[in-house]
Each structure stands twice: as C-alpha cells, then as structure tokens.
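queue> pop job 88
queue> type: inverse folding (structure -> sequence)
queue> payload:
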C-alpha cells in the first residue's frame, strides 16, 4: 500500500494511476493547495497509524516517518519525493510525474521501494550466525485443534504480506514446541501465546 501528500494534481493523479490502474491500495491522500494551511497534524497521525509501505511526499513526511520509526518486524516504509519542501532535484526525463515517461518513472520508483522494503526484513549474516539452528524434523507430526488453526490463521493475516510466510513458520514452530514441552497431544490456542524469540510480531498486542 502507499500514501501520498502533494499538490492536488499529484495527489489525485498518482492515486488514480497506482490504485486504479496498477492495483496498489492507497491508505491516505492529502492535497496541498495554495492559500490553504496544510493539515500537518492529520498527515503525521496517518503516517504513524496507517503504516503505509511507500510514502510520496515532501521532507515533512520524511520527518514524520523518522518519528514513527521502524518496527522490529516487517518491512520498513520507503519514501519517494513528490512534493516541496524537499532536498531533492527532480529534473530528469520522466520527472515530474507526467505522461508516459512519468508513469514509467513512477512504476520504477515503486518497484525499487518495494525491493528496499524487502531488504529490511532479510536477516543479516551476523544475525543468522547468532540464531539457533533449525531443529531436524525427526519427530512425528503433532495435531492441531480447529481452534488453534483458526487462531494461527488470524495471527498470520495480521502480518504484512511480505512476511506472512516466515511469520507462519515461526508461530507454528513455537506453538508445536510449547505443546510438546507441556506434554500435549495437540496444539491448543494457548500454545500460540509464546513466540520463538519472545519478540512481538507486527499486529499483535503488547
């Protein structure tokens, strides 16, 4: 998903192109208009609460993103300059975002932003060295109750799309480990209360 804060032409045009033509959901779009005081407090709140993966905007929005910080889990929001004030030069063909060249530039920037977001959820080599080895699956499979399966599905759906596979594996392994430690014949919903590393996953209450 993405959010945009720019002049009315960009806010409407970029939202229409990315949301209607490209299928990328827009979580917020604010327009800056001449003679009208910008709603900076609303923009800050939207960035802090709606967690867009890509933000088009000015240096103001970049500062709000820095205030929000990055989650320990999940992709980090990426910034694409699209408004002033901003410490960026945009004079190359395709910028501003107008016509075919502008559309091509937009797609390129969004794709690069998504790859950058993916980079932030990949483990570093030093992190992998510190992690516990993956246990060999020499044990028999343990059953799951229907309630536990439903809870696991809800917890996985609460995660950002990019990390759902790894989140599902971590939650499943942790729950099965807990069930075996307790001597249970099947995984129950309360087994999902313990995470592998004790870290909080995105979307779960503290």
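queue> result:
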């Amino acid at each position: 998903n993405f959010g945009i804060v720019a002049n009315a032409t960009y806010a409407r045009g970029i939202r229409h192109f990315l949301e209607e033509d490209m299928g990328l959901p827009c979580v917020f779009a604010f327009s800056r208009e001449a003679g009208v005081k910008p709603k900076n407090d609303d923009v800050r709140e939207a960035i802090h609460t709606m967690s867009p993966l890509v933000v088009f905007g000015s240096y103001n929005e970049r500062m709000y993103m820095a205030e929000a910080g990055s989650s320990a889990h999940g992709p980090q929001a990426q910034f694409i300059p699209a408004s002033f004030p901003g410490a960026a030069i945009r004079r190359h063909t395709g910028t501003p975002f107008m016509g075919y060249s502008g559309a091509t530039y937009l797609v390129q920037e969004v794709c690069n932003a998504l790859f950058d977001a993916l980079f932030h959820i990949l483990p570093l080599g030093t992190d992998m060295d510190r992690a516990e080895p993956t246990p060999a699956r020499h044990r028999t499979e343990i059953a799951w109750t229907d309630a536990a399966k439903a809870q696991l599905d809800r917890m996985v759906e609460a995660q950002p799309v990019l990390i759902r596979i790894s989140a599902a594996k971590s939650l499943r392994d942790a729950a099965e480990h807990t069930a075996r430690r307790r001597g249970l014949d099947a995984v129950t919903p309360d087994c999902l209360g313990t995470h592998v590393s004790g870290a909080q996953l995105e979307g779960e209450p503290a």
